[in-house]
Amino acid sequence: MNASTLAARKKALRFLFEPVVDKLGYKFTPVEEDADFLLEAEVSFEEKYGMPYCPCQARTRDRAENMKIVCPCIPFHREHFDAMKRCWCGLFIHKDVSDPSTLKQIPPSKFRKPG
Amino acid sequence: MKKVKMYTLSTCLWCKRTKSFFEEKKIPFECVDYDKADEVEQERIMAEMRKNGGGGSFPYVCIGENVVQGYEPDEFERLLDCKSK
Amino acid sequence: MGIDNWVRVMEETALRDQSMAAVFPKGLPVLLIRKTAGELYALANQCAHMGCPLYRGTLDGYILQCPCHDWRFDIRTGIFADAPEIRLRVYEWKIAEGQIYIKIQG
User: Fold this and answer.
1) Inter-chain touch A23–C70, beta carbons under 8 Å
2) Does residue B12 sit at the A interface (CB-CB below 8 Å)?
């Protein structure tokens, strides 16, 4: 994939994902360098597998499981991500967060559902 | 010194930062990129991660007997500083 | 003015029970689903995730699953099963003189 195609597809993913995550209370990380790195990984997955998978979660041979890590995967990990105020890979953060460096990853094993 | 072993994804930003953390501190570590491994190795890694209560979220870092899932520099520091008793 | 917003899309007899049709009133992608005679649903034929046509999706009861990434929607409301804030647009429909019409806003 040449540089202009890559840039166009990254822009397209932003265009597609922005309204989806907005409804869920999230926005793209303001750290452009991070967003660019993660989107580039997703574009490479689209090229290889046809799907923009999360760059920080593992695919397995189970399609149903894999579909839960197609970006934006917030709906399928809502309570966990809401607790972190970010998605696992950090491409999206809560709308009320301005500095994502203050956010930490909470391991899925340590995450306890509220209530 | 505690043995450091990690499973990472080559596409994961936080895995890169985790590796840099240990490299900058000149702490040797073993690392396997899950996405570069063959299927047999992938299944073995996933089974190990699941056994320790983690799902498929990377990075997955073993420091001695402890496991840290995610990029947690404070936790890495704490576990490294802990003298083995 | 109102009457002009009803757009004829297909003959009622062309849509069998438990089947779907992709129609394009005024160019808009709309999915028509017929459960039984007189029980129709019309919703945006574009997944709220990445815009995949839902026409080739699978229908289980009232849940339509997108063929691309398995996002699931309730055809009665358009609501996404895993996050109710996300929904597909649903369209009003009517049958008149054996023809199916879809109401298009504006």
Assistant:
1) no
2) yes
Q: Decide: helix, strand or coil at residue B56.
A: coil
A111 within a domain of the structure (yes/no) = no
pLDDT tens digit sequence for A74-103: 999 999 999 999 999 999 999 999 999 999
pLDDT of residue C106: 67
Supply the DSSP symbol for A86. B
- The parent domain of residue A27 ranges over 3-102
E strand residue ranges, chain A: 26-28, 92-94
The CA distance from A56 to C62, in Å, is 34
Residues of chain A found within 8 Å of residue C69, distances taken between Cβ atoms: 51, 67, 70
- Cβ of C21: how many Cβ atoms within 10 Å? 18
Indicate which CATH number applies to the domain containing A37: 3.90.460.10
Q: Within the 38-97 window of chain C, which residues sit less than 8 Å (CB to CB) from chain A?
A: 48-51, 69-70, 80, 82-83, 85-86
